[in-house]
Amino acid sequence: MENENSVISKVDVRIIVSGLDIAEVVSKSVDNTQLERDYNIIVSSIIPTNNFEIAKKVANGGDIILIGGYGQDENYNLLFNDLKTDFNHVGLFDYNNIIKNETVDSKLAADEILNSIIRAALSYSLNLVNVHTLENKLLKLTHKYNSLLDDYNKLIEDYDDVSLKNKELQETIDDLKSDFTAFKSRYEDIYSKEFLEIYNLNDLWQEAFREDLADAKKVTIATNKFKPENIIVGQGYIGAQSRQDAIDWLKIIKTALIFVGNDEEDLKRDLNKTSEVEDDYDISNNFENFWD
């Protein structure tokens, strides 16, 4: 009972053709077909016009709009763009399929009406398939976007952590720069000092004269008596700007000792006369204070 009383909406078709002669043939073809009985389709309007405004008024409210023309020419494309909405289907009523022996055939016209309706409906169905395909793609893109958004938020967190560490590192660098500046200021004149190479006195004497040094103290006393530039002796070592300078000085000392004699007391007395130091003369601070 419910099915018998239910109302099934009919499909409303509007046909726009270019001339009155074609409109008459199309109207006769519609009368000869049982579209409403067989397919629940009614052709509510057949309008011969080339006026866009009239065509828009005719098409308003129709489910399927068929535009007559010889293929999808410029006129069809213009009308299609003007008449197509989200609530209708627009298709071509192709004149090429209804002409036989240079005249419009009503039977062919009837077939073309039905075929045009089917094509328009199929085109809509294919568009729905495309829409569903696009929806699936959009869904995938949405998931990908959300995933990328999560990655982005994670990168923001990592960036904040890195920024904090970078700030701490920059503070450390600033501290190091400050320490370096202080160090540089403290030792900026280090290159202006004359550095002395330190050699073992006994080894250098052996190298220079091929004999052991009998008494290193004599060399120390003699060196401090003459006070040569850039030469210091003490604690069993000799300091000079080069090994050759040290050897040259030892040669001078050896020659001087020959003339002075081997009496250590004479050397001490000579030293007392010139420098007024005690007999147990000690220069232990010569090397310790060299860098001061």
Explain how this protein is built.
- It is a single chain.
- This protein has helices at 2-5, 20-32, 35-39, 52-59, 74-83, 106-186, 201-209, 216-226, 243-260, 264-275, 285-288; strands at residues 11-17, 41-48, 64-69, 89-94, 99-100, 103-104, 197-200, 232-234, 237-240.
- By secondary structure, it is of the alpha/beta class.
- It folds into 2 domains: 8-131, Rossmann fold (3-Layer(aba) Sandwich); 197-288, no CATH class.
- It has a 4-stranded parallel β-sheet, with helices on both faces. It has a 3-stranded antiparallel β-sheet with strand order 7-9-8.
- Helix 8 packs parallel to helix 10 (264-275).
- The longest helix is centred in the middle third of the chain and has 81 residues, at 106-186.
- The protein is rod-shaped, with a radius of gyration of 58 Å.
- Residues 1-6 and 273-292 have low confidence and may be disordered.
